[in-house]
Amino acid sequence: MAYQLGLDTGGTYTDAVLVDQHQSIVSSAKSLTTHGDLIQGLRGAATAVLDDQHRPVTLVSLSTTLATNALVEGRGRPVCLVLIGYRPEQLAKARLVEALGRDPHGFISGGHAASGEPVCALDVKALTELVDSVKDSVEAFAVSSLFAVRNPEHENQARDLIHQLTGKPVSCGHTLSSGLDAPRRALTALLNARLIPLIRALLHAAQQLLIETDINAPLMVVKGDGSLVSAEIAEQSPVETILSGPAASVVGAQFLSDEPLLMVSDMGGTTTDIAMIRDGQPRLSADGATVGGWRTMVEAIDVKTFGLGGDSRITFNREKRDFDVGPERVMPVSLLVKNHPELKDVLHAQLELPRSTTHSAEFVMAHAAEPTDLTKQQRELWEYIKHKPIDVQTVFDDQTLDRAMVRLSQRGIVLRSGFTPTDAAHIVGDLNDWDTEAASLAAQLLMRYSENNLGMRYNSVEHFAQRMMDSVSRLTALAILDTQLSEKIADNSRFLKGLDDSQRTLLANLLVDDDNDELKIQLAMNFPVIGLGAPVASYYPTAAKWLNTTAILPEQGNVANALGAVVGTVRQQHEVIITPSSGRRVNVHLSSGTQEFDTLEQGATAAIAEAETQATELASRAGAQNISVSHTRTDNVVEHLGDSVFFESRIVATAVGRPSTTNT
């Protein structure tokens, strides 16, 4: 019997599931994700399900939330953005300035018109000077040229030159999206470049695992739309793995439940990801995936991502005089102290002080290899923490290190530890995996800080922990409502932005379970919620009760991502655009260049052939076998004074197949 191995690397856990040739689950396992050396987490989960029984594995498939988490938390590696043919004022669009941060960028003459004709030659001299000036301070490059989707010549030229000068990865906008929104295409290329080192490290770890376990099988990766691609393709376009984990969980939920209408809510360590399934199918985002506030042009399952998870940082908000949960992920203090028992003495010492501070019960540690490009303050912070975790109160005796810590956290070089919902679950007895005493000590420090700053006074650590867990349940219910209502509002053309802050605040207040309220409004959802992920049993029954619906918590729901990774299919698309030329002639924008035809029908025939051929080749390169292909054609024709005026035609071919079970 042949077997297939599904893996999922999340912010907290790495999951594995083994299925047989009938897609029945044979075994599943979880292991802590080891961010400093990803193969350890993969090895721990995979070897547990393989169980030394030498089962023949014919396919390995991987999903991950690493790309999603990096965008939600504002992390990424330094890159340079090359803008060809852009005007400086376009940088203000699509939040490009904010996305760039301190990373370098440059405007280079070149680009094309909407017809595909070059505006001017690419300024090779200026591009060479830009690349030479930044190549030692960045890890990758992003290139976006105006109307590259109509003619990618200048993007390809720039890519080849940058490769020649640096040997570093280059992301080209036209390979990631065929949309015409140039600033958003530039943003997508920028995010892709920033994610390459992160995803490359994961894929190399997975490939090393296959060597260690003597598995000679293809390695596939889940894209944001739930389909699979080969590891080689994913390494070139890691931005397509945005929402990979959530997409895999939706595919896994479909496999685990036969409900035609349900909401899938997947809670991990960092995020909660929510999507609707209607008529047994997930909805795709028509406008590209939005993660962490960034509107990309990557096709993905329509998922709303919230910075809420088992490892969300719990901090006191002095303005609200109450605690906030998330969106930043930290290591639970109970896990940190389990690995470093000596830090429990630090918590005891902080409790002996007369007052708590904003950084009580918080620690910081190295999270990556030693960096080279640090400022003076960043280097000083690194010297503090490079050998072992240290409490943040000690670090912040020197207030100049505050900005250094924020910057190194954003780059993924350091990781904080603090009180989280996972710690609260240890205190109330839902979990007993790590050091419950450390969680209790941290809770006492936060309780004291709340009381000293006019916040709530808690009766006991159990009272405090339960209140924090109730907050997570309420935020979960609010996220579910937000997803449903935002979708309904967005479907109405009068309201394109979904819920506003005042609406969210009202809904949050309605979810307070208080019998003394003079006004009570009952909410009811007419479909169940399937809760996936390790923490859901602690929060979803309460959230479902407040929403007057049913929470489905499948036995294998905590490894749904890994399951979805291995039961998916390969799906690739190719789009060809047809535009007017002179008279009734048309231009067909082929991958080899623009070609003119006498009539629209002649052009459409050529476009369909090109689209289906390219989609089939893409699916084959992505690792598919037994490929079937279909196409759609959308003509934009307006009747005017008895005559038909042609504006544009879009041919989209879709090729679908199951992953090949043999290496090529």
Question: Taking all residues together, what is the mean pLDDT?
Answer: 87
In total, the number of strands is 29
What distance lies between the first and last C-alpha atoms, to the nearest angstrom? 22 Å
Share of helix, binned: 25-40%
Strand fraction: 25-35%
Using only CA atoms, what is the Rg? 26 Å
Give the count of helical stretches: 20
CA-based shape:
globular
Structural class category? alpha/beta
**Adjacency order of strands in the biggest sheet:** 3-2-1-4-9-10
Instruction: Note the main sheet.
Output: 6 strands, mixed
What ranges have pLDDT less than 50 throughout 5 or more consecutive residues?
490-497
Could you characterize the architecture of this molecule?
The chain is α/β, with parallel strands linked by helices. Among the domains are: 312-467, no CATH class; 570-659, Translation Initiation Factor IF3. Helix content is 37%, strand content 25%. The protein has a six-stranded mixed beta sheet, sandwiched between helices. Strands 11, 12, 13, 16, 23 and 24 form a six-stranded mixed beta sheet that branches. A five-stranded antiparallel beta sheet has the order 27-26-25-29-28, with helices on one face. A hairpin with a 2-residue loop joins strand 14 and strand 15 (294-295). The longest helix has 31 residues, at 182-212. The model is unreliable at 490-497 (pLDDT under 50).
